Amino acid sequence: VQLQASGGGLVQAGSSLSLSCSASGRTVVGYAVGWFRQAPGKEREFVAAISGSGRSTDYADSVKGRFTVSRGNAKATVYLQMISLKLEDTAVYYCAQGIGVATYSDYVPRKVSGYRYWGQGTQVTVSS
User: Fold this and answer.
1) Backbone angles phi, psi at 66, to 5 degrees
2) Run of H or E including 7
3) 52-97, pLDDT tens digit by residue?
4) End-to-end CA distance of the chain
5) Using CA atoms, how far apart are residues 13 and 60, in angstroms rounded to an integer?
6) For residue 126, what pLDDT is reported?
7) Nearest 5 degrees, angle CA 109-CA 84-CA 107?
8) What does the pLDDT look like over 14-42, one tens digit per residue?
9) How many CB atoms lie within 10 A of CB 120?
């Protein structure tokens, strides 16, 4: 089972982009979903996440106020809306399912170890 991130692309600094994370309903609905990114030569880092209940969200300081994580109406898709993109946002973006917490909880894991079912990711490249 993998969660598939999509929607990446090449954009100019200051632009917006929306990423989607989808999988079979059982792997997204009711579970926390996290967004991470990894730039060349760097470790995978936390970007944003939404709880299984949908009531809680968390963001890395570097994206707070610019990125918004949300669930679709059917809750089987999770989105990452990105605005005011910066050069340093360039990375491969991944989504994954939170583990170790009850379904529909308000808890939002931040560590890579708190997630599973990583997909191949989607490339986001921000140019000047």
Assistant:
1) -115, -30
2) none
3) 999 999 999 999 999 999 988 666 789 999 999 999 999 999 999 9
4) 37
5) 19
6) 98
7) 15
8) 999 999 998 865 667 888 999 999 999 99
9) 11
Q: What does each C-alpha distance from 97 to 55, 107, 125, 128 come to in angstroms?
A: 16, 12, 24, 33
- Output DSSP code: residue 113: G
The answer to whether residue 46 scores a pLDDT higher than 80 is: yes
The encoded tokens of residue 109 equal: 């894991």
Q: Which residue has the tokens 């939002």?
A: 108
Q: Which two tokens stand for residue 1?
A: 């089972």
HSE-CB at 77 with a 13 A cutoff on CA atoms is 12
Q: How many helices (H) and strands (E) does the chain have?
A: 0, 11
Q: In which residue are the tokens 């560590």 written?
A: 111
CA distance 61 to 45: 12
Give the chain's length. 128
Which residues pair with residue 10 across a beta bridge?
A: 125
